[in-house]
Amino acid sequence: MTDKPTVGMLGTGIMGAAMARNLLKAGHTVRAWNRTRAKAEPLAADGAQVTGTPAEAVEGADVVLTMLYDGATALETLREAAGSLRPGAVWVQSTTAGLDQIPALAAFAAEHGLVFYDAPVLGTRQPAEAGQLTVLAAGPEQGREKATPVFDAIGARTVWTGDDGSTAAATRLKLVANSWVLAATAATGEVVALAQGLGVDPQDFFDIIEGGPLDMGYLRAKAGLILGGGLTPPSFAVDTAGKDARLIVDAGASHGVRLDVAEAAAERFARAAALGHADEDMAAAYFASFEDGQPGS
Questions:
Q1: Element (H, E) at 47
Q2: Lower CB density within 10 Å: C or N end of the chain?
């Protein structure tokens, strides 16, 4: 068997397109599909076979890689492709899904003879483009010879969390990690907004924390996007961040954990989206601090 499996790439948004390009650079054959075909078309110049349907994308694929909006979308898309799925193919499910959705995805895989890997990734647009994502993976030993070359092409590191993807072990870790990322993002927007509201130069805040335990590269990067007007193209969009925040709240609630910060972040992302910032970088949650979406209001 070749060490360069043919990959059916389903979902070519911010993350999926970058992952597809790195698969192509690594020598994989990639058949790409996206619901809005225009988002997949640029991949043709990189060597991808752009298809019109999910079924065409997975035809003959050794590995099916899903990077879609949520678990329900991933399941709907695989159902559309069911007639073309090859028994024994690996399904690398990298969409950030809810804990309650993973068992249904795993059950679909079992029904169609697919080897299921729960494999969300950590990272945003820039590390995705550089092939520097961290892959969180759970799935059986048998089949990893197909999955590993894909993980190696899209990521700098693979962290194995178990040998049964249906337990959602990788997704659990992803939601924990994202809870921190989204909390830090929301807090960054609030600290900039509060400084401006109180007539404080945000740079004075950065100066007093510089080099200390409260200083963070992430804080400075996201604040820089807010203050410098660099919210497009997004590294990770407001709308998607809001979806993940809701998944985190639901996951906590289902396990007896109340997540007040995550719940507030979800509401904050929703307000920013309603103000017209849904497709901007998630740092644009900053605008939710103001009644009419503008500082000084």
A1: none
A2: N
pLDDT tens digit sequence for 97-148:
999 999 999 999 999 999 999 999 999 999 999 999 999 999 999 999 999 9
Asked if 80 contacts 55 with a C-beta cutoff of 8 angstroms, the reply is yes
Q: How far is CA 204 from CA 13, 165, 191, 201, 225, in A?
A: 37, 47, 12, 5, 17
- Crossing angle of helices 71-80 and 102-111, rounded to 10°: 20
In three-state secondary structure terms, 294 is coil
For residue range 20-77, what is the model confidence (pLDDT) as tens digits?
Answer: 999 999 999 999 999 999 999 999 999 999 999 999 999 999 999 999 999 999 999 9
Task: Give the residue carrying structure tokens 């059950």.
Answer: 107
- Would you tell me how many other CB atoms lie within 10 Å of the CB of residue 90? 27
Euclidean distance between CA atoms 196 and 214, whole angstroms: 20
- In the numeric block, which tokens belong to residue 190? 């609030």
Instruction: Fill in the amino acid letter for 180.
Output: W
Work out the burial of residue 267: count CB atoms within 10 Å of its CB; fewer than 13 is exposed, 13-18 middle, 19 or more buried.
Answer: middle
pTM of the model: 0.95
Q: Could you tell me which of 266, 285, 289 has the C-alpha nearest to residue 276?
A: 285
- Whole-angstrom Cα distance, residue 22 to residue 250? 33
Buried b or exposed e, range 1-26, using 16+ CB within 10 angstroms: eeeebbbbbbbbbbbbbbbbbbbbeb
What SS3 string covers 93-120? ECCCCCCCCHHHHHHHHHHCCCEEEECC
